[in-house]
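Risk register update: the risk of archive-format incompatibility is retired. Evidence:
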Amino acid sequence: MKVIVVGASGETGTSVVHGLIKSAENIEVTALARKSSLDKPEYLALKDLGVTVSTVDLSTVSNELVALLTGADVVISCLTSGNAEHVETQNNLASACKKASVGRFVPSFFGPICPPRGIMLLRNLKEDLLDHIKSLYLPYTVIDVGWWYQLSLPPLPSGRLANALTIPVQTISGDGNTETALIDKRDIGKYVARIIVDPRTLNKSVFVFNEIWTQNRIFDLMEKLSGEEIPRSHVNEQALQSKIKTANEAVAAGDITQMRNLAMSQYELVLGIRGDNSPERAKYLGYLIGKDLYPDLQGESLEQFINDTLAGKIERLYARRR
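Archived output:
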């Protein structure tokens, strides 16, 4: 099987490629990169693992792009979907996949469960991409993965995790008792490797995750394993909605620097207040559930992840970014 990954140098892309390489399936992996990124350590490391790395220009649906994709069984996009320009880039990729008769396209979703529109700007943009895919009648599979362990831990009062947590959790959303589905970012790839060879997932959406947790239970576990008492500060829905409104207005006025604040506030709402990110909500929205499809596939536990983080064994998120 020939699989092409676009955006392989990012956190999700790296996990996907490693999962494909380690898969029991006979998968030939090619990573497509911008010419300016070819010398990035991430791509050099992929070459050492036997991955073919080729240059790509996604600014147009060119004959060269179509030729690169021709013969691929699966194309997986791990590109950022943060604004309309990013969506247009992925639209071009999808259009080229259609012209190249690619067997299956996996768009860059890889996030928490959320209703299609009206809740999160990032989700709106992803749904715009999915609309384009469906307009082409391009075979596809959407994969969502919940929220990362790597983004779920609070800092410790002692500061011992200051260099380990890129984005520590500073506040608890609501009362802290809303359940949400979590995954170790490093496990994403092994789920993807199973999904893309499964005929049951063609033209479907699939939700994979490792465990279900609440923020209160995460804080409790962190205290137990670290031996430290962690202060707890809560943010209510009204405060979050106010932050979202302010950031939305700024983004609408052209201040793109507020996109991150908007996204994180909307994530807090979805994960900690609304409770969207659950297998029950996913089933309602039409998703297949990974644990139903692959009961033999086990991911890392949050407890082990925390122990490894405390022991300094977990690479800091985005540490490889230049």
